[in-house]
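User: quick one - fold this with NAP bound?
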Amino acid sequence: MADAARERRIVEDVPKKLLIGGRERDATDTRTFPVEDPSTGEILCEVADASPEDGMAALDAAARAQADWAATAPRERGEILRRAFEMIIEQSDEIAMLMTLEMGKPLAESKAEITYAAEFFRWFSEEAVRITGEWRTNANGNGRVLVMRQPIGPCLLITPWNFPLAMGTRKIGPAIAAGCTMVIKPAALTPLTILKLADILTKAGLPEGVLNVVTTKSTGRVMGPLIADGRIRKLSFTGSTEVGRTLIEQSAQQVLKTSMELGGNAPFIVCADADVDAAVEGAMLAKMRNIGEACTAANRFYVHADVAEEFTKKLVDRMGSMTIGRGVDEGVEVGPLVEADQRDKVAELVDDAVQKGAKVRTGGQVPSGAGYFYPPTVLADVPTSARLVKEEIFGPVAPVFTFTEDEQAVRAANDTEFGLVSYLYTKDLQRAIRLSERLEAGMVGLNQGMVSNAGAPFGGVKQSGLGREGGDVGIDEYLEIKYVALTV
Ligand code: NAP
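Assistant: Sure. Structure tokens for the protein plus NAP:
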């Protein structure tokens, strides 16, 4: 069993106030809101609940710090990130416990996220000193073109609850490296991990005002005025497509540059020539990473009829034998979903598919007792009219469909408004390239069930978003290009 005293101490150690201009301060009227443990439904602690005035104070601090920060040596910016990277790794056991307590996923999953999240700081610590420009002679030989890349200015970063640390470091890392100041608003369900990260960055030497943290339950009321304020020069959002659309509309007023990492509906295609065992292994990762609460989660499995029963049976064996429980307990592989609404939505999607004719091969029932648990579930014979064909499940449910022609699989895979990631299993190299080119997605997992990598450009097409995070291009989202024309 987990050690309750250690859990309490780890939660107690996190600053719970707003971080504005380098100072931890209460919200207006010392308002707070509760953070819950989804495995028990109990309250872990209270954190500051910012008002619109607090949000504006955070922007004031970011705007004040911008000029000095932009002028800080790139090496210094990089070294702060590098120190923070090392501190995150040193404290990974405690951060993992914190993340599991507020978000629910098993400790092993939290540790994997921390490794992934910290890597963005290491990657961008190296990118900070490699911001380049251009110099060229005019085509007519008379003049010169000088191109420089400069920090875009104060940024507003809004992050979701499903990867509480990585969705923050993927934005904070390049913003620091580029020389931008920022206001970050973590999800109200999981504010503690970002508050802990902010504390680490302060201890790593980040100057006051560069990172300001606003936790709030009045999200729209606090974020709206910031988006409308001309001093914010960039909005980077990760979350649902629905909220993303609203934020794009709001950003239009200031013609604000936006990055949008939005929802997914990933197809997972298994061709007749695939290594079925490898495909099942990949499916477990693509489906069960983060208990299915990932934008990259495989949402629809399209399996060739020749291997469909073998694949489904092996997947059922693996999914049906997973250990469910509190994420902090030893040996647990499946924790609770993040909140009751999320669990109810998953149950509703499964019930809808079953009513329309899908067969439950494992799982499919909400267990009794405390916490927001839902068991790993495999559905076969799923009709295409089921809601989960179009909607993001965001839970541990794998619907399996069959196909006989590649063309049929590609058409079904692309028949969605989303386009974040597609997974493809085949041993035939030509088929792999042909289908990868035709899949409408920002990323393809080719014979692998995970695409997340700090060194690669992460992002989607269609309604899965705008822009890329990570890789060589990740820092570009935080830089503005300026061209100087000169005569010589
Ligand atoms: P969400 O409901 O869209 O919330 C995301 C963030 O936006 C939260 O911080 C939320 O604050 C904030 N927000 C909500 N309404 C807002 C408003 N009117 N103005 C400004 N901010 C607002 O998404 P979620 O449920 O946290 O996350 C799950 C979604 O994120 C899924 O669709 C998933 O696919 C997507 N996601 C995408 C990626 C990617 O890289 N493409 C990665 C991870 C997750 P509150 O917490 O206060 O509501």
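One thing worth noting: Residues 158-163, 167, 185, 187-189, 219-220, 223, 238-240, 243, 246-247, 261-264, 295, 392, 420, 460, 464-465 surround NAP (CB under 6 Å).
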